[in-house]
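Form P-L/3: holo structure prediction, ligand dioxothiomolybdenum(VI) ion.
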Amino acid sequence: MIFDKASENVFDQQRVVGKPQRRIDGPLKVSGSATYAYEQQLNQKLAYGYIVGAQIAFGKISGIDDRKARSAEGVIDIITYQNVPEVGTGAFLSAKALGGPQIQHYHQAVAIVVATTFEQARAAAAALVVHYKRENGQYSLESLAASAPLSKSGAFRPEPVTSLGDFESAFHRAAFKVDETYTTPDQSHAMMEPHATLAYWENDLLHCWTGVQQLNWGVRDLALALGVPKEKIRMRAPFIGGSFGVKGTVMSDTVLAALAAQKTGLAVKVTLQRPLVANNTAHRPATIQRVQLGANPDGKLIAIGHKSVSGNIPGGRPEAAVLSTRYLYHADNRLTELKLAELNLPEGSAMRAPGEAPGQMALEIAMDELAEKLGIDPVELRIINDTQFSPEHPDKPFSKRNLARCLKRGAETFGWEHRSAQPRSQKTGRWLKGMGVSSAIRGAPVMPSAARVTLQSDGRLNVKTDMTDIGTGTYTILAQTAADMFGLTTADIDVQLGDSAFPESPGSGGQWGAASSTAGVYAACVALQEKLADEMGVSLNDLSFSNGQIVVNGKSIALQSLALEGEISAEAKMEYAESRKQFEHQTFGAHFVEVAVNELSFEVRVKRMLAVCDAGRIINPKAAENQVLGGMVMGLGAALMEELVVDERLGFFVNHDLAGYEIPVHADIPEQKVIFIDDVDEYAGPLKAKGVGELGLTGVAPAIANAIYNATGIRVRDYPITLDKLL
Ligand code: MOS
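OUTPUT (holo model):
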């Protein structure tokens, strides 16, 4: 099925889609019976793997002495580059899952020790001796920033340079200007469930249970790493304990579990120990960004410049921090630029709203600085520079853009009129009070997605797709979609996800999951309805579905009775027409924050947060609110706490566990509120809905930074805003 534009359809009735729904997988989650990869039980002999990470960042393995480790109790095998074929790189990442002799980054896996128990594997791993020849690597983004070349374009690598008009001369003549440099640090995903895999081979067929957001990427990259055909891999991820991009594809746990299972003939379980996650896997790279804004006295931007440099290992991608600047505000003269320095730190990759979140952390402080210089309210300044057309392609409209509505609604709801434009002018006791605002923008891509829908002989409707639920609520929105299509409730639907044997979806990533996978289920439901109509000798238009009944020319038949003879099943895939490219597809939002800053210690307390989001129809307002609330907490982390500290002599992230890498929790924020703009986007898909998960993070950190400035009069342009930077 090819999607172009949605007309009026069943979802407009707001029966199930659009209504808050409890998670259908909730009881499994809270009772501990949702099985994660590491909890999977098998009826066969199991061994445990323990991964050993490289102790150097760059150089070579000069020798391995595994005699003591091999003779340790319970040890079955030890796998290194010396005793298995060379591991290949996948299509998304450039670091190999098994290093040696060349080492690409610190904690790159150099061995997996396989033993009868986890403890035995761990003990033997401690006895493994690996000798290294350290070479000099590059670990300082700051020292390479000035000489870094432009990045290259390609898959998930946006154009390095975009321009419109004459930025330099417009900026030069602008009456009001901001020209500042902002920095964002390396960040770790720090999701609850560390990477884990259970793998075994059934002859030449590899089975693995793992936590991978996009099974199609996981299978592709595992096949590339092992040099086996994709068809020989069955990957399952029915439940995933959180992920923000680093589980987009397979990591060392999966590749090494598969190798270990192959070599030992056993089923092998591997989890990355928490201290390995930060350096062994991938992270959000640090950026150094220069933002130049030029405006007329009326607040109209005439020049927007945004240049960013980030680092990565050879072959790695840039952190596309200028991406959302290409879509956010109007200005006739524009220049954006991405540079990429080659570093030998662990690989940088996608983390929630990649590029967009750190980019807005810079741009949206700059907007606050400009508002102050102009003497224009920062909400107003953003509205003045709003546009319905793509800023770099003035003929191209947005499919839907309610940014100004988000800002206005947020200002009213939050009590923005109580904010004082004068910094450091509001105080309660020893607490300086301030409010800040930021716009939010995040792309709304969709991808082809397939599903199979079956009317079972017991009358229940079964939905299958290899889509994942990473804690976002996918099970529930797919049940909602199918329920509406057949006039049922979510209680009548069984959803099965996370198995590469099911029809292919694009998985969870890029905020495309909700729109794409519901569209795939919609297509499969239409295909099943066509089949039913065909069997009844009527046309699809003669059929309608409500209250568990199928209505044909005024006659009602229980849906259940149709399948009594045997199940009826249909599979279909939703794809997208070229015409969709006539529009820019983005989601929008506005964040409002109130902070209190202690005037003696400069401790920051976030008091209140409000997010107003514009993402088309909200399929499940309960789950969507939950996503945005989580994004706001994560944004607080980005603003105030999160930073992987680089050891620039040895090339690794020092604070590589949850004791050193600090993240906030919901309880750190006394009041959080989320509002969804009541609107739909006909160009987003049949449900007229877009994703919200990554939108919820963008704009949060700069709103906090701006509130801190409003409270203290101190402008920090270097994240995270720890109290030492305010003293
Ligand atoms: Mo997201 S960083 O695309 O999982």
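COMMENT: Residues 2-34+446-582 form a domain with the Aldehyde Oxidoreductase; domain 4 fold (CATH 3.30.365.10).
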